[in-house]
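[job 4471] stage=fold_predict status=RUNNING
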Amino acid sequence: MDEEERLKFINRPATMDKEEVMRLKALHQKTSLKLFRKFQKLDKKQQELKEPSLALKTNDWFYIYSGGVGIEVLEFNIRKLDLENDEEYK
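[job 4471] inference complete, writing structure tokens
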């Protein structure tokens, strides 16, 4: 990718609005909590085996539940919309 293409890619606009981002972020948190509760029910040995894959599994399930939105797309839109500085989002 040349410099012009790279800058065009970096500077592309958000693909979601604030409401959609907030809805999907809540879905990601709900998915994460659901899987973490299942994880807590495992014995210690099973937890040690499954812990490295917990975040990946959360992102996979989020992709399925959201209808094909990847976590990186969600995070991109959060940054583009500057929601880290938005009181309602926090």
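[job 4471] summary: The chain has five helices and no strands.
[job 4471] exit 0
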